[in-house]
Amino acid sequence: MAFDPLDRTLVTLGEDGKVCEWSTENWSALNEYGAHGEAHAVATAGEGLVWAGVAEGDRSTFRKFHQGVHQESEDFALHASEHLYSMELYSRPSEVSILAGDRSGNLIAFCSLTGVMRSARLGLHSDAITAVCISADGHTVATAGKDGAMFVLAADGISDTARPETRGGSMEVVMINRGDIQLRQDEIQDLTMQISTLKAQIEEDAARLQSECRARVEEARRQDQEKIQSLRSKYETLQQASTVKERDSLRKMKAMQALHVQAADDQEKSYDKRMRADAESYDALEAELRDLEVRFEQARQKAQRVLEAQEHKQEKEVHNRLNEKDAEIQKLKDLIAFTQKRFDAMLDQEGMEQSLEISEIKKKNQEELEQQHLVEYKLKKDQ
């Protein structure tokens, strides 16, 4: 929880992350809202301005609220290890300063002189800072942490007033619980005794291991010597056997070489015989080839003569057929001329008959017309 500088408002923060603002005049609830995450520290400047350190997963944020509304644009992102555990506010006309302690033992100062939040860090404790307090004049800061230590620091820049020159004592005071010191000394003594015991045990184990190592080395050397002697005897035996095998192989190689020479001679003789037989066969084939060439030439000439005779005969037959075709064509031409002449005569006769018939029809029509005129004339005359 935290009061505002004028003690008009009390702000409380619950484990459920809910922030409540209370009026100190009648202790009525002014506002109630959630911090939107895990929060352990809160501070207020009054008039609905509240700051809280909020952790969401692996993120930690210094968050501002105004009249219960989260001012997301003014969030100040922190490292995940800088989750705030305690917070104290100091207000002055020019700006608001907030000192907060995180779970890593760092003291973080937030101030907004220019309207933009900025921060500075100071490492103090070895564990989380559980309480931060600023003196009324703003020149002294006290912190307490889970490590059992309390720091009292001289502060500059928080208050508008100058720090008094008559203030005595050190700029920084560290107070630690004597019981904690005695406890740490007892722990150190116990650890020293344990270290001495471990050293003696290690030396004893080292001596024992060294003696065992020497014994094992000697045993290994003896076994190696025995193996070397055994391998040496095996090597000599194998070398003798190898010499015997080498001599036997040399003898076999000489015998095989003699056999190879004999086989080569036999193959050479056989090759000569085969070459002579092939030469004789080649001569016979050449004579046969010449005979075949002569026969081929004779057959070619005979075929040429037969072909020429057939061509001459075919030319005569073609000439005769052409003459016959010409005679037939002439007959057809004469027939066409006769037919054309006959057709023209028939056309002329038919034309004359048609002209005669037309003249007769005209004459008959003329007579009928005259008779009709005569009848009309008589009728008109009778009227």
From TrEMBL:
UniProt xrefs under InterPro entries: CFA-57, Quinoprotein_ADH-like_sf, WD40/YVTN_repeat-like_dom_sf
Protein's UniProt keywords contain Coiled coil: yes
Coiled coil ranges: 181-241, 275-342
Highest rank taxon of the organism: Eukaryota
Transmembrane segments: none
Gene3D superfamilies in the cross-refs: YVTN repeat-like/Quinoprotein amine dehydrogenase
Entry keywords, A to Z: Coiled coil
Protein name: Wdr65 protein
Native organism: Symbiodinium pilosum
Gene: Wdr65
